[in-house]
Amino acid sequence: MLAGAQRSWGRIKALFDSTPAEAPRRTILPAPSGAIEVAGLACHVAGSRKPLISGIGFQLEPGAGLGVIGPSGAGKSTLIKAVLGIWPNVSGEVRLDGATHDQWNRAVLGRHFGYLPQGAVLLPGTIAQNISRFAEHPSSEAIMLAAQITGVHELAVSFENGYDTVVGPGGVQLSAGQAQRIALARAVFGMPAIVVLDEPYSNLDAEGEQALTQCIKALRAHGSTVIVVAHRASALNALDTVLCLREGRQAFYGPKDSVLRAMTQAVQNGSGDQPRIGGQDRQAGGGPRSGQGIRQAG
């Protein structure tokens, strides 16, 4: 065992000796504006020949609002993880302000992303700490702005210790809806350039849904690009563009009204498989880019 440990230590030492003490200094890009360009995007699982998603392409300008819809298993969550740079096995391109993910400093870029995953979890700490992402010296004004824009301020001050209320183990136990709303405030903290919300309307009551819709409108008015994964048609109210996925491929993409009208027409024609949105089955066709109309895929 001692001899084996000595050999292992020798290999580790050789590795560190051959590694530069400091990585080459990289040029820092300016803060992203929220422009997103996706071209020929495909995501794979190691060892599997069939991609989870493929052939995805769209463009969003700063302040755009995109709804990603489609049946369960269509690849919606995979798509947004690729846009955020979370999904590792990607072919094609995702560009933010014209630059690929590997051109950005990841620590810097993370501050310009807001992400609300499905089943969002709060960390043990205060409400203010969770909203501010446990920043060392967060601005109280930024915390308040995130809480007010998401309708969380009234919830926070309703507790005895307000924003300093501890949540999680040893603290206040929140309902799923309350935790979801605080996690939403965490996603919009700092008014990121790009905000991605995965099924944000789940666990929300009518008041919470209304607050979320107003939040999305406020983000877009600020210039943030907002992407929402949704099953409900009501989740598209504050958005202007829709991308429909079916079996991992792009089916419809374009202005919201044009996409929904084309999907309705496809249902009336009674052709093909039908993705689910808003509790109703509707078929997907295909389309190129937002603003260029909708045409049937194939």
Main sheet specs: 6 strands, mixed
> Which structural class is indicated by helix and strand composition?
alpha/beta
Q: What is the fourth-level CATH superfamily of the domain at 32-111 and 239-289? A: P-loop containing nucleotide triphosphate hydrolases
CATH topology of the domain at 32-111 and 239-289: Rossmann fold
- The unreliable regions are 272-292
How far is the first residue's CA from the last residue's CA? 62 Å
Radius of gyration: 22 Å
Fraction of residues in helices?
Answer: 25-40%
Write down how many β-strands occur, each being a DSSP E stretch of 2 or more residues: 14
Which CATH architecture of the domain at 32-111 and 239-289 is right?
A: 3-Layer(aba) Sandwich
Q: Main sheet: which strands, in order across?
A: 6-9-10-3-11-12
Order of helices and strands: HEEEHEEHEEHHHEHEHEEEHEE
Shape: globular
Topology at a glance:
Layout: H1 2-17, E1 36-43, E2 53-60, E3 65-69, H2 76-84, E4 90-96, E5 99-100, H3 106-110, E6 113-116, E7 125-126, H4 127-131, H5 140-149, H6 153-157, E8 166-167, H7 176-188, E9 194-198, H8 206-222, E10 225-229, E11 241-246, E12 249-255, H9 256-269, E13 276-277, E14 280-281
Helix pairs in contact: 5-7
